[in-house]
Amino acid sequence: MSLSRERIRLFQMVDVFESLSASEIERLDERLPDARLETGDIFYSPGDPSEKVFILRRGKARIYKVADDGREFTLAVVGAGTMFGEMTLTAQRLQGACAQAMEPSEVSMMLREDLERLILEKPQVGLQIAHLLSERLRRYEIRLEDITLKDVPTRLASMILLLVEAEGVVTSEGYIKIPSHYTHQRLGSMIGTTREVVSRAFGVLQEETIVELRRRIIYVKNLEALQRRAGHAEGEVTQTP
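Given the sequence above, the corresponding structure tokens read:
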């Protein structure tokens, strides 16, 4: 498969572009600059004057909020084929919102004026973006409530659900494996607490036979129990943007 066809296929995975034909996506792609970010690099942060959205072509990123006391709370983990950064284009914006590469990542960038031009040409894209904004704001508000008001085992369970959605793989045992290695220190920074507190919270989830750690890799043994522990209704899985 040529690079052009691969890029077209990836753009077709993005919800807001699903109404575009392959030729329209190809023309759009030709106008979008690319960038490569290394692990830990920031896509955008509060006060960033640039107005653009990102289409993640390869890699993984997290959307997070920085509290007044400096703690970071992860709102979402996104993978290839996801558009993000659209909150920076709203009047409200998401107070304190940032996006950071979790691994080496490649993105295409779209300036606000290019997005507005596309919406004028293809109103279906505007409708999709309106739906996307509404749904993400709802999910981010729920997520903020989860990570600021609930106890640490519940916050950790909610974070693991996000990781399950972003990268979970079903094993031959019927468990869900999160293949990336997340240290307790890293998870603590994602839910606004310390490594020691995360270690104790993992102990709670393991005692409840919800998760298991093997060679520092997380396995979810009981997805429904994890959802309940995270405060979600039975059968409902938190989805990433």
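The first strand starts at residue 34 and ends at 37. Try to locate this feature in the token string yourself.
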